[in-house]
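stage 2 :: seqdesign
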C-alpha cells in the first residue's frame, strides 16, 4: 500500500518521536503520508472561491509566493484578491508548521516554494501530453531546475461537493529509472548555459535536471507504459491532507476540483537516508555525479 496514514486533525500539532520516525521513513521510501482528517477550513469570506467558475482565469493554477507576497494567475477585484491571498498565506503557514513538526530533521534546510490553488476540474482538461498530469509521471519542471534538491509537496482537498481527488500511484522510483534512464541521452556540455541565457531556465539546468525532465516526458509519452505499469488508484476525499515527494513517487491526477498545494525544496543532504533520493539512485546507476 502506498499510504501511511495519521489520524491527526489539527495543523498545530505535536508528534511523538515514534510518529516522526515512522513518517520520515515512509516518506523517504516513497509512500504518501496521509491525514484523512486534516481539513483546511475556509472562512466565510473565502467560500466564494469554491464556486466553479467564479475565478475567470487564464491559467488553471493560481499561485502565491509567501516570500514576496505575490499572487499570480488570477484577475479579480482587489478586495477579493486580498481574501484569496490571505487564504493562501494561511495555507502556506499551516503546511510549513506541519512539516516542521512532523519532520524536524528537515527544518533547518527546508525551502518553502510556491503555494497553489487549483480550482479547475482536471478530468477532461485538454493540454499537451507534457503538461498532462492525468498521465503517470515524476515531477520535474522545464523552467525551474532543482540541482538535485527534493520536491516535497503538501496537498489538501477542499472540494465543497464531496468529490475526491483521484490519483493513480505508480511503481517505485528505482523501477521507473530502470525503465526510462536507458532511453535518456545525457545533456551536452554548454547547453545548460545557453538555456539560462535564453531564460528558458531560471537557473542552470544540471545533468540531474536534464535526466529527470526526460524521464518525466518519456513516462508521459509512453501510452502503453501508462496502462501497463504497476499502479493503484487512490481517492483523497475532501478534508484530506497528504504529503509526498513528487519527484520520486510516480503519480497522476485523474479527477477532482478545488485543491490547495504547497511546495518545498529540500537538499538531499538533509534527508535521513539520501540514498533513497532520485539524485542518488540515478548517480549510482550511472556511476557519476549529476549535480
Ligand atoms: O493536481 C493534482 O492533484 C496533482 C497534479 C500533479 O501532478 C502535481 O501537483 O505534481
Ligand atoms: Fe506531478
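stage 2 :: out
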Amino acid at each position: 500500500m502506498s499510504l501511511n496514514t495519521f489520524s491527526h486533525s489539527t495543523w498545530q500539532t505535536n508528534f511523538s518521536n515514534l510518529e516522526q520516525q515512522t513518517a520520515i521513513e515512509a516518506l523517504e521510501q516513497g509512500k504518501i503520508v496521509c491525514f484523512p482528517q486534516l481539513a483546511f477550513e475556509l472562512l466565510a469570506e473565502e467560500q466564494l472561491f469554491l464556486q466553479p467558475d467564479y475565478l475567470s482565469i487564464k491559467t488553471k493554477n493560481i499561485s502565491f509566493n509567501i516570500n514576496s507576497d505575490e499572487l499570480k494567475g488570477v484577475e479579480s477585484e482587489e478586495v477579493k484578491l486580498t481574501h484569496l491571498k490571505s487564504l493562501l498565506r494561511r495555507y502556506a503557514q499551516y503546511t510549513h508548521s506541519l512539516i516542521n513538526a512532523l519532520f524536524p530533521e528537515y527544518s533547518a534546510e527546508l525551502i518553502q516554494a510556491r503555494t497553489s490553488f487549483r480550482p479547475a476540474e482536471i478530468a477532461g482538461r485538454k493540454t499537451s501530453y507534457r503538461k498532462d498530469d492525468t498521465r503517470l509521471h515524476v515531477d520535474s519542471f522545464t523552467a525551474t531546475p532543482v540541482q538535485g534538491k527534493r520536491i516535497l509537496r503538501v496537498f489538501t482537498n477542499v472540494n465543497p461537493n464531496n468529490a475526491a481527488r483521484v490519483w493513480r500511484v505508480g511503481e517505485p522510483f528505482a523501477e521507473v529509472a530502470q525503465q526510462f534512464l536507458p532511453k535518456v541521452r545525457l545533456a551536452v556540455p554548454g547547453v545548460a548555459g545557453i538555456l539560462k541565457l535564453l531564460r528558458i531556465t531560471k537557473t542552470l539546468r544540471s545533468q540531474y535536471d536534464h535526466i529527470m525532465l526526460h524521464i518525466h516526458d518519456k513516462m508521459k509519452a509512453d501510452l502503453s507504459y501508462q496502462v501497463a505499469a504497476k499502479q493503484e488508484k487512490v481517492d483523497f476525499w475532501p478534508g484530506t491532507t497528504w504529503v509526498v515527494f513528487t519527484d520520486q513517487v510516480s503519480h497522476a491526477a485523474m479527477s477532482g476540483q478545488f485543491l490547495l498545494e504547497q511546495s518545498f525544496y529540500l537538499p538531499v543532504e538533509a534527508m535521513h537516508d539520501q540514498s533513497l533520493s532520485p539524485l542518488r539512485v540515478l548517480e549510482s546507476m550511472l556511476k557519476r555525479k549529476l549535480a
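stage 3 :: structure notes
- The longest helix spans residues 78-102.
- DSSP finds seven helices and eleven strands in the chain.
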